[in-house]
Amino acid sequence: MLTVVSALAVLGVLIFVHELGHFLVAKLCGVGVEVFSLGFGPKIAGFTRGRTNYRLSAIPLGGYVRMTGEDPRSEPNPQDIPLSFTHKPVSRRLAIVAAGPLFNVFFALAVFYALIICAGLPQMSTMVGNVLPDSPAAAAGLRENDVITSLDGRPVAQWEEMVEMVQAGQGRTLQLEVNREGGNIALSLTPRLTESKNVFGEPVQVYQIGIQGSPLGLSVTYIPWQEAFAPAWDKTWEAGKLIFISIVKLIDGSLSLDTMGGPIKIAQISGQAAEHGLDSLAYLAAILSVNLAIINLLPIPALDGGHLLFFSMEAVSRRKPSLRVQERAQQVGIFLLITLMVVVLYNDIMSLIQ
């Protein structure tokens, strides 16, 4: 039950934020909105205020904002032309379409910002937790609970910083200063080039010294609200970069389609995150929000990115693509989206079976 509720909550919030972006900017640009729907298919509940029908629909896998005059194949009533999406300048149409993905990015940034202020930033010190046997660290004499304070005369306090310095050394011998039981000792070691796997499961060559971090070195740093924007943006940027690289790898074939997940996978992950608390669920929602933004910006007809592509072409050429071209592109886009949905649902089902 927790899995279902958490998944619906996360997806509902992300869909609402996305469609709210389209809705608010459409209103700001003077475009009438006929329907604001969370979900697709038959209407479950709703109400009408002004000219807009706000509704909850049966299939919670998306949403939509239907605007006045949005369909270029039909001419709106003369009194509705001032509110028609199609009759607005291309710059306003670009802004309305781009607002959905941008609101998802803003939402992720806001969530990361709130988490950093309320829960702090977890950081790992350079305290040694475990020394692997037959490693450069073991040969150099490093021990559990040693704290590495400098590498080659450069002070180091965070684990990630130390890892970067080891990689930058490209295998040359490093001079370490270590704090052991209150006293400082000097050691030297030569990192070993070993094969590991990156976040995509691909084999990579990295330099390692053979130590693992200590749980005793994990701490939380609280950052003033006025300084929290920069790390929040860094987390948003890193999430977006990782998702973009994943999409590129899927396209060039270096990442298998088997790694893709759909609504069932999202539900499983949401349930696991919810078990670890609201912070974990909020963090997952921020990651998925960036994911939703980037996927929607792909230049595929039927997605926001496809509309942005056509509007950009119109802005450059000073004329709209023909209806025939738009319809064919929409058909291709819908075919691609259906194919993608079949793949991710198949992966989800096979994952459950396995």
Structure report:
This protein is an alpha+beta fold. It folds into two domains: 185 residues, no CATH class; 99 residues, Pdz3 Domain (Roll). The protein has nine helices and twelve strands. Strand 7 and strand 8 form a beta hairpin. Helix 1 packs across helix 2, helix 1 crosses helix 7 and helix 2 packs antiparallel against helix 7. 28% of the residues are buried.
List the helices and strands and how they pair.
Layout: H1 2-28, E1 33-49, E2 52-67, H2 90-119, E3 121-124, E4 128-131, H3 136-140, E5 147-151, E6 154-155, H4 159-168, E7 174-180, E8 183-189, E9 192-197, E10 203-208, E11 211-213, E12 218-221, H5 229-252, H6 263-275, H7 278-296, H8 304-317, H9 323-353
Antiparallel strand pairs: 1-2, 3-12, 4-11, 5-6, 5-7, 7-8, 9-10
Helix pairs in contact: 1-2, 1-6, 1-7, 2-5, 2-7, 2-8, 5-7, 6-7
Biggest β-sheet: strands ordered side by side in the sheet = 6-5-7-8
The percent range for strand residues is 15-25%
Order of helices and strands: HEEHEEHEEHEEEEEEHHHHH
Q: Number of DSSP strands? A: 12
Proportion of residues in helical segments: 40-55%
Our measurement of the CA-to-CA distance between the termini, rounded to an integer number of angstroms, reads 21 Å
Count of spatially separate domains? 2
Approximate shape = elongated
Runs in which pLDDT lies below 50 for 5 or more consecutive residues are none
Total helical elements:
9
* Overall SS class: alpha+beta
How would you sum up the major sheet? 4 strands, antiparallel
